[in-house]
Amino acid sequence: MNYENILAEKDNGIGLITINRPTKLNALNRATILELNEAFTAFNTDKAVKVIIVTGSGEKAFVAGADIAEFADFNEEEGEKLAALGQELLFDLVQNLGTPVIAAINGFALGGGLELAMAAHFRVASDNAKMGLPEVSLGVIPGYGGTQRLPQLVGKGRAMEMIMTAGMANAEEAKTYGLVNHVVPQAELIDFCKGIAAKIMKNSSVAIANAIKAINANYEDGVNGYNTEIRAFGESFGTADFKEGTTAFLEKRKAEFPGE
Ligand code: COA
Predict the structure, then answer these.
(1) What is the pLDDT of residue 208?
(2) pTM for this one?
(3) Which parts of the chain sit beneath pLDDT 70?
(4) Could you confirm whether 70 is annotated as catalytic?
(5) From the CB of 27, is ligand 1 less than 6 Å away?
(6) 94 Cα: distance to centroid of ligand 1 (angstroms)
(7) Ranges assigned E (strand) in the chain
(8) Is 80 designated active site?
């Protein structure tokens, strides 16, 4: 598949999506969001893809936010639509994918960029990364889930401060906050993420998809996460991966999961 604003490559079970508008610091315009929707959906339905890594092109930015030039003239109605459509097409999609998504934050992750990274299942940052939700400095608020996901990851008080000050956290600070799991030199970022992906790929992809669903259930209004877990746990017993995993253990060999 050819895209204009992103690159999507598949190699050894890993789908690598690179947002590719380096002259605009990979800002998310509408066309990029639509292409990301297509690429994430395609990788998620491709059985050969076990883990997705999303990153930005160039050495400066993961994504420096939603494309400010595109919404500068919007009215209230258009603003609301922008947030609703973006959340549906990209941010909620990524959060709820059954395929694990790692955000490899290779520089600025601001506004929609940090919101995309937070929608991913976990984050790894390069040592030059800077992260923040600076929307109030533009007279708006985060609109791609930032007011919800940042407090979930860093706690309410820290999120309040980050959003109110429109400040940026550096990579080490972000790690202390729990916003990113690891900080590595920029040149090693993608290989480091591929290393984590390799560990994930040894396990049952069906069980992982169910685990993602159960973990996410904790953050859904009106959903009892424990009940979601109980159901998903039960469902595991009907999968070929469960048969293989338990049989391999008892036979003292490595499991070869069919992913079904
Ligand atoms: N939307 C649209 N264009 C953006 C952008 C965004 N969010 N972020 C950067 N760009 C563009 C700049 O307009 C500039 O384009 P130009 O060369 O055509 O003028 C180009 O990317 C390079 O950015 P520049 O600001 O010159 O780089 P810098 O190194 O001086 O500063 C940042 C880097 C990230 C601090 C700065 O670009 C910035 O503050 N960006 C906006 C961040 C933001 O508020 N995001 C939230 C949006 S809701």
Answers:
(1) 98
(2) 0.97
(3) none
(4) no
(5) yes
(6) 24
(7) 6-11, 14-19, 51-56, 61-63, 101-105, 108-110, 122-126, 130-132, 169-170, 182-184
(8) no
